[in-house]
Amino acid sequence: MVNINTPFTADASALRLPQPYLLFLGDTTEAGFAKTAYGLRDWAPDKCTGEYALPEATVSTGLPALTPAEAHARGARSLLIGVANSGGVIPAIWVSALIEALEAGLDIVSGMHVRLADVPGLAAIAGKLGRQLIDVRHPPAGLTVGTGRKRTGKRLLTVGTDCALGKKYTALAVSQALVARGLDADFRASGQTGIMIAGGGIPMDAVVSDFEAGAAELLSPDAAPDHWDVVEGQGSLFHPAYAAVSLGLLHGSQPDVIIVCHQPGRTIMLGSDSYALPSLEETIDLNLRLGARTNPAIRCAGLSFNTSHLGEEEAIAVMAEESRRLGLPVADPIRGGDQFARLIDSCLA
Questions:
Q1: Can you tell me whether residue 99 is helix, strand or coil?
Q2: pTM for the complete prediction?
Q3: Which of 66, 217, 289, 308 gets the highest tally of CB atoms within 10 A of its CB?
């Protein structure tokens, strides 16, 4: 379903994860923090058996609610932490559920910053039971600083007004649309969920800052002149916590084209309530100005709106109005249709 041609085979081979998964939602109450679970449900449904959440959780993927034992009986082979919270932490309240999964015969797969083996007592229990603790958020060894060298091939990067509003979904949908048009294109995963879906990539937010641009260069290497690398964006240049990873990815990927991702109606930064979202005009302008440092020919092809909270008619009206106002195609890649086709046309113009 997803094309990827990772140049770092050692790390890619390490991602032979035990499947299918039981998606763990922890005690999550904010849908934006459950984006890993939603991403696996939407883009790799054949790998998902069900979901498991603590009583405190208020979000759901809509998959069958199963205990670890029930999931194991249905064929699940690992509990995959489907949460991407601020700081990538594993709270103490989760530990008993993780132990329950190990005791039910499941390995544990995590994309959190905190290593599973560093959770007190977990490694000892896993060792005793013969279970695996698998951390996905590991950058490849031997990264170098960015060179700024112009590389062959074409590149598209998804950028955003904030975190958790559709950069990964947009990159996946665009890469599939390009392939459907007969073009040579690969999805390049830069975050934990994308890596779990595609089976390879670099977790950019786990890379030391000095090597961010170099990691992005490795993620999208020299390619044939007509080849497209569609790079999954991270964070936002405007986010008070995550702007650094966004800038390193922007400089290193050297995109020829950007698509700006946004959720209409969102007004404040996820996890940083005292910071307002930038305007779409500010977002386009800043990404183009900073991106021009390593690719003076960078341009914005249009915008991707996450309209999952809107009805069909309202979503179409909002996108049409913003398209007229900005003079650029605006589409929801999940809704597709003529608007998305025009966005792809603009990318290829």
A1: helix
A2: 0.86
A3: 217
